Amino acid sequence: MKLTRLCPAFVALLGGCRGLTAPGACPDWIQRAIEIEVTDGRTGQPVAAGATGSVRDGAYVESLRVVGWRGAPPNDTPTTLGAAEGRRGTYTVRVERPGYVAWERRGITARVTACGVQTTRLAAALTPQS
């Protein structure tokens, strides 16, 4: 029997299927619930550098942090913010950056699959302040 078929059967016993290495098996890492690609709404260029924000689900609040880049070191350009590792929920997501109008979305749901939380990916095209 393939490991991928065993994965759902072990969720209740082991709390997940981490560590399986067969094709189609669960990943070896915990997924973030929310990831947001942050760009300038006029130019489409990444503006995650200098951006801040949070995810909120009821009383749970976590600050966003840079989790994705493009380019080669040492000149990596931050592109993506993320939060809430391994945590399902229904979130209000807010992104702020000096010189831009704050961006917010409500009712963003991160669901759980047999392998853990499934990342919800968003795109925040920030509007420059006039």
Task: Describe the fold and architecture.
It is a single chain. With 130 residues, the protein is mainly β. It folds into 2 domains: 1-29, no CATH class; 31-126, Immunoglobulin-like (Sandwich). The chain contains 1 helix and 10 strands; from the N terminus they run H-E-E-E-E-E-E-E-E-E-E. A 4-stranded mixed sheet has the order 4-5-1-10, with no helix packed on it. Strands 3-2-6-7 form a 4-stranded antiparallel sheet, with no helix packed on it. Strand 6 (89-96) and strand 7 (103-110) form a beta hairpin. The protein is globular, with a radius of gyration of 17 Å. The protein starts with a helix and ends with a strand.
